[in-house]
Amino acid sequence: MNHLKSAMLLTFALSSAYCGIDGEQLTESKCTVCHMSSNPTVEQVKNMVAPPMWGVVRHLKRDLKDQKSFVNFVSDYILEPSKEKIRFNKEAMKRFGLMPSMKGTISEEEAKIIAEYLYKTY
Fold first, then answer.
1. Which of 12, 42, 51, 63 sees the fewest Cβ atoms within 10 Å?
2. Contacts from 19-27 at CB under 8 Å and sequence distance 24+?
3. What is the C-alpha separation between 103 and 58, in angstroms, rounded?
4. Could you tell me if 41 and 27 are in contact, meaning their C-beta atoms sit under 8 angstroms apart?
5. pTM reported for the whole predicted model
6. Is 114 a domain residue?
7. How many domains does the chain have?
């Protein structure tokens, strides 16, 4: 019986990993509601509620020199944003304010998947 249970758990784990959560879909559904994924038009700039995704990633990649540091920082910031953690210019903070925590709407695993996707995409 234990072998059957182990085999079932292994099959579930492997199928879950294979099907996986898609970073692009997560980013589109959870992040681009506020952070635009492309360059905004002049008209869109007037109505932005958060900096564009490419701008956020560019600033973070400049400060955080490797993928592991980037993923750890971004996944933590998504769930626990604070003024002390901000790594971009004060004008952006003044204009957009502090990002709200996504805790409760994004899991830790999803936050890491999003961070990895952002690092690889932008």
1. 42
2. 21/109, 21/110, 21/113, 23/113, 23/114, 23/116, 23/117, 23/118, 23/120, 23/121, 24/117, 24/121, 26/106, 26/110, 26/113, 26/114, 26/117, 27/53, 27/114, 27/117, 27/118, 27/121
3. 24
4. no
5. 0.80
6. yes
7. 1
SS3 22: coil
User: Where in the sequence is the domain holding 45, given as residue range(s)?
Assistant: 23-121
Query: Which residue is associated with the tokens 């604070």?
Result: 82
Residue with tokens 């249970």: 5
Structure tokens at 33: 């509601």
CATH of the domain at 47: 1.10.760
Per-residue pLDDT of the chain (122 residues; tens, 9 = 90+): 445 444 443 443 443 344 578 999 999 999 999 999 999 999 999 999 999 999 999 999 999 989 999 999 999 999 999 999 988 788 889 999 999 999 999 999 999 999 999 999 99
Residue 95, in any domain of the structure: yes
Question: Given the structure tokens 């910031």, which residue do they identify?
Answer: 77
Residue 45 belongs to some domain of the structure = yes
